[in-house]
User: Which sequence fits this backbone?
């Protein structure tokens, strides 16, 4: 037998080094490099008899992994038709965004279908969770509740209750006895998650883990945590808005770019199957400086509104304020309008551009709507509220093609829009029943949508 040799591996990224270092040279994380002993096996080592022999794939029962609907359609949309037995789901989000409220709603619907759910909380007492469940109407006799942080005791609760769904809130508070490291540390989180994944796979129990996020919005803990689980969901929301979104980051059982929409209310969290109404105007008359757009969030088309305002300024450098949009792209669009369209007032006026309803848009397909809203605000020309604009604006003033134009136009038609301005040259079959105007540059787009001039604000 050859002498075992030691190596050092980073638990965050898996990078191996020959000696211990305090900071991983690959990912830059501190305190994640641990020693791992690897024995060198001699040549000719025989195999070990497997505990379960391999079988032909045709003999494997596919019904054992059929997704079970949770009863919340927006959540099932993101998961891919529901929860797969034996799967492990990681739900991450900022504190107070509503993760626990959503999961209480999930276990309630799960229990109403005759299934047993076990909710394990490590951050609150059982009484506090019961109070929230009373407020949101999530009390059911098939929902079992326990406040526990010890991993061995949690596994004992699972053996006693024998549930089909287990929720652990949160994985950073659970301690694995006999494992080194502080609570919530890299070693502890990896050990706890590994044990829960093994339990889920061996017993066919679906497990939902609640995870914290870092300051930059990433899932806290080692990067290997995301590799251990089957599904990673991000629960997003602005504290100044009631809208909440569940976004799929990783999904072994469905699409990884789906989005589910919810609304946080006093009596709990509710589904929003048609969120476009939140992002649209509430007016019956046309106002200058507004333009509608259709953005893609994952595979979901959302219709929203962009508003722009221009005020004359005496400052040498007029102010630029952006809300809900990429400030760099807005600055680029303003430069194109000034250079290619000859709108010299842009350099002399304060420009404010914002979305409606707390909508966040970062894709280039919003460029055309931004340009039209700013042009409408500066020139004082209104854009009919029944018109939507879709397209990317280039530095030469051209309108470039974007993805999923047909899906965007279909969503606009469903919501009652009668005119769509899209880039020229597309080969997609667009829906009938809505007027389509194909444009190749900003000049054509302005001529296609602006109405009669009104009194300019300056």
Assistant:
């Amino acid at each position: 037998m050859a002498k075992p040799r030691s190596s050092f591996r980073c638990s965050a990224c898996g990078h191996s080094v020959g000696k211990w270092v305090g900071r991983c040279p690959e990912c830059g994380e501190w305190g994640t490099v641990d020693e791992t002993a690897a024995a060198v096996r001699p040549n000719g080592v025989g195999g070990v008899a497997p505990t379960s022999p391999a079988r032909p794939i045709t003999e494997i029962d596919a019904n054992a992994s059929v997704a079970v609907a949770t009863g919340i359609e927006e959540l099932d949309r993101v998961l891919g038709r529901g929860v797969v037995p034996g799967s492990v789901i990681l739900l991450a989000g900022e504190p107070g965004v509503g993760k626990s409220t959503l999961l209480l709603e999930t276990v309630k619907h799960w229990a109403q279908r005759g299934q047993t759910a076990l909710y394990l909380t490590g951050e609150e007492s059982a009484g506090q969770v019961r109070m929230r469940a009373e407020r949101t109407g999530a009390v059911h006799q098939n929902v079992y509740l326990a406040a526990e942080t010890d991993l061995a005791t949690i596994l004992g609760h699972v053996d006693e209750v024998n549930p089909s769904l287990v929720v652990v809130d949160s994985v950073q508070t659970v301690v694995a006895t006999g494992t080194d490291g502080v609570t919530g540390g890299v070693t502890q989180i990896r050990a706890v998650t590994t044990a829960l994944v093994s339990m889920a796979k061996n017993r066919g129990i679906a497990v939902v883990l609640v995870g914290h996020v870092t300051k930059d919005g990433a899932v806290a803990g080692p990067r290997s945590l995301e590799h251990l689980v089957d599904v990673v969901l991000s629960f997003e929301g602005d504290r100044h808005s009631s809208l909440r979104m569940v976004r799929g980051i990783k999904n072994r059982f469905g699409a990884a770019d789906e989005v589910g929409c919810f609304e946080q209310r006093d009596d709990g969290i509710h589904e929003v199957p048609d969120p476009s109404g939140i992002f649209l105007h509430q007016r019956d008359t046309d106002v200058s400086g507004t333009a509608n757009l259709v953005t893609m969030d994952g595979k979901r088309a959302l219709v929203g509104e962009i508003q722009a305002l221009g005020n004359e300024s005496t400052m040498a450098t007029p102010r630029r304020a952006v809300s809900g949009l990429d400030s760099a792209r807005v600055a680029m669009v303003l430069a194109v309008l000034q250079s290619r369209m000859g709108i010299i007032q842009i350099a002399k006026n304060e420009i404010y551009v914002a979305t409606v309803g707390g909508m966040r848009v970062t894709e280039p397909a919003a460029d055309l709507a931004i340009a039209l809203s700013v042009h409408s605000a500066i020139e004082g020309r209104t854009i009919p509220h029944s018109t939507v604009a879709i397209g990317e604006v280039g530095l030469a003033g051209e309108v470039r093609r974007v993805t999923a134009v047909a899906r965007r136009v279909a969503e606009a038609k469903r919501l009652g829009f009668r005119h769509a301005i899209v880039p020229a040259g597309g080969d997609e079959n667009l829906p009938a029943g809505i007027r389509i105007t194909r444009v190749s540059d900003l000049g054509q787009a302005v001529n296609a949508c602006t109405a009669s001039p009104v009194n300019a604000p300056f």
